[in-house]
Design brief:
The chain is mostly helical and 282 residues long. The chain contains 14 helices and no strands.
């Protein structure tokens, strides 16, 4: 038995644990831990009073409120439409299905600045979609509505790709059995399908929310960046500090640290949800 175990260890395709762990830790340190540590160290150049004063300025607080509220709304919208998209792509066969499935990844492949310019143009007063919104009294570009639209665009893939694997594992026979036993379609959805989706929905929601809070490229053009109108986002405040004449790196690092803490908390909660979901299905 011992010889078999040793033989299995020798026949592994990837090198041993020590080498692979060393490579992993090195890459993790160089690409993630060290840059994040530099933000932490730079923000420590401020005293606690200066740090608090920096992150509680009216424009910074307003930017955090705008980023978080718009990201929350966009993530909630993505949960609804992402579920519908995932359902159609998993449960139905139709011409162009592969094309639509591939287009879900477009927000990942498309440069965010290009997306921002395109959305700003389309939803402006002169744009096709912007004119349609104006007729019903809604301003598209240079408003919080435009911010939400941009965040829906960049966040929809997270929700769709989180839900699709769950729907694929849920056999259609479960729905057919419920319908044959006399259950309505609404009852079948609420009691057969929906109970399997909360972990995936929460994962997609959290990823879209974390992406939306720190988004810059796709929202910088469509938002208008007006503190008076409440359309400044946190990422714009950080860039504003870095691009100012005196280049306030320390202030930018302090705000970035708060943003990092929010994102870390979201990821931690996501991991906890996935852990509890895995225990429930064991």
């Amino acid at each position: 038995m011992g010889r078999k175990m040793k033989k299995k260890k020798r026949n592994r395709v990837i090198p041993g644990f020590g080498l692979t762990m060393g490579i992993t830790v090195t890459m993790l340190s160089l690409l993630i831990l060290l840059p994040l540590a530099s933000v932490l160290i730079r923000s420590f150049e401020l005293t606690p009073a200066e740090f608090w004063e920096t992150i509680t300025r009216s424009n910074v607080v307003g930017a955090f409120q705008t980023s978080i509220l718009c990201a929350l709304l966009a993530a909630a919208i993505n949960c609804v439409f992402g579920l519908i998209l995932a359902w159609i792509l998993v449960r139905y066969d139709f011409p162009g299905k592969r094309l639509i499935d591939g287009m879900i990844e477009l927000p990942f492949a498309l440069p965010t600045a290009v997306a921002g310019i395109t959305l700003a143009k389309m939803y402006s007063d002169q744009g096709v979609l912007g004119q349609a919104l104006n007729r019903i009294g809604i301003q598209g570009s240079y408003s919080r509505v435009g911010l939400v639209i941009a965040l829906v665009f960049v966040g929809i893939p997270f929700v769709v790709r989180s839900i699709q694997p769950v729907l694929r594992k849920l056999p259609p026979s479960c729905e057919e059995a419920a319908l044959m036993l006399g259950a309505s379609k609404g009852f079948t959805f609420r009691h057969v399908i929906l109970p399997e989706l909360p972990p995936a929905l929460l994962t997609g929601f959290g990823l879209a929310l974390a992406r939306g809070i720190g988004e810059y490229g796709s929202v910088i053009y469509i938002s208008g960046n007006s503190a008076k109108n409440g359309t400044q986002v946190v990422s714009y405040i950080i860039m504003q500090k870095l691009n100012s004449g005196s280049a306030d790196y320390v202030g930018a690092a302090a705000i970035a640290l708060v943003l990092l803490a929010i994102s870390f908390l979201l990821m931690f909660l996501l991991n906890m949800v996935q852990w509890f979901a895995a225990r429930r299905t064991q």
